[in-house]
Amino acid sequence: MNPPATPPAPAPDRRFPRSVYGAGQDPDARFSMANERTFLAWIRTSLAFVAAGIAVEALAVVQAHWLRTTIAVLLVLTGIAAAAQAWLGWTRTERALRHLAPLPSSGLKLPIAVLLGVVALAVLVGLLVA
Predict the structure, then answer these.
(1) CB-based contact 25:10 (threshold 8 Å)
(2) What's the Rg (C-alpha) of the chain?
(3) How far apart are CA 113 and CA 127, in angstroms?
(4) Contact 35, 100 (CB under 8 A)
(5) What confidence tens digit (pLDDT) does each residue in 2-30 have?
């Protein structure tokens, strides 16, 4: 008689990032996919802010050059903050899902909202001055 076959050892998890996938257990795929969709929504938002910054500068919507450049830079910075929110939010949420922990809140939502408010105020000033 042959001895019973031992099951093969599981392959090491090589998914990126290891800081997320290296611990805990795989959550329900629906939750991970919802987290992915939220990540992609933040990426689209980031891209929209960057495109708006480029458009403000290229189309010269505001006549005052210094104000137009300030608005464009603020929009691009908001896009960068939204991209950071996408990544940080995805990793923190995925880690929480893997450890069955409460879902984290976002620390960048308020700064992004404030930046957008400043941009809107600057655009309003630029339109009124013109």
Answers:
(1) no
(2) 22
(3) 21
(4) no
(5) 777 777 765 667 888 888 888 899 999 99
Contacts of 125 (CB under 8 A, 6+ apart): 67
First to last CA, the chain: 93
Q: Under a CB-based contact definition with an 8 Å cutoff, are residues 81 and 111 in contact?
A: yes
Provide the b/e sequence for 29-51 (b: ≥16 CB within 10 Å): eebbeebeeebeebbebbeebbe
Which amino acid appears at position 25 of this protein? Q
The pair of structure tokens assigned to 113 is 């909202």
b or e along 72-102 (b: 16 or more beta carbons within 10 Å of the residue's beta carbon)?
Answer: bebbbbbbebbbebbeebbbbbbbbbbeeee
pTM for the whole thing?
A: 0.82
pLDDT above 80 (res 107): yes
Identify how many contiguous H helices and E strands the chain contains and give both numbers. 4, 0
